[in-house]
């Protein structure tokens, strides 16, 4: 037994500094790929005003604005963190929205007010991800093969060039 659960081969790991989360590593076991994200603007459920309470229902997943080849890979990886068979009865939705290479993560419950109006209640957490590295294999900082990595000296020069 390799110790890898076949139902959940994607493993996220959260790095923190002084009890504050600052990065997320998502690794698809056993062969990869692996993505490393900078984590910013983290607001937990208790920090959100008028938040709702999450149920144990599996959420629907919305991937918005992942248009490039790299964006498709990252979007599919993030989407596969959740079960592919959502339970619509719970009316939960998780949204990954890519805007200017920042990925905004939100979790909501939608409520049908009448036949024409729908309300949203945020369930939390609310956070922002920025892709730093995308490796073809599993996590290996010394000998790993990088498909893409963020080089701030050359990539942050233009505000009109986006990679996701």
Question: How would you describe the overall organization of this protein?
Answer:
The chain is mainly β. Helix content is 9%, strand content 43%. It has 2 helices and 9 strands, in the order ββββαβββββα. The chain has helices at 69-79, 152-155, and strands at residues 10-17, 20-28, 34-43, 60-64, 92-99, 102-112, 118-122, 126-135, 146-149. Strands 1, 2, 3, 4, 5, 6, 7, 8 and 9 form a 9-stranded mixed beta sheet that branches. β1 and β2 form a beta hairpin. The protein is globular and about 55 Å long. It starts with 9 loop residues before the first strand and ends in a 9-residue tail after the last helix. The mean pLDDT is 85.
Count of individual beta strands: 9
Order of helices and strands: EEEEHEEEEEH
Proportion of residues in extended strands: 35-45%
What structural category do the secondary elements indicate? mainly beta
CA distance, first residue to last residue: 37 Å
Biggest sheet descriptor: 9 strands, mixed
Count of DSSP H/I helices: 2
Based on CA atoms alone, the radius of gyration comes out at 17 Å
Assign an overall shape.
globular
Give the helix proportion (percent range): under 10%
Mean pLDDT level: 85
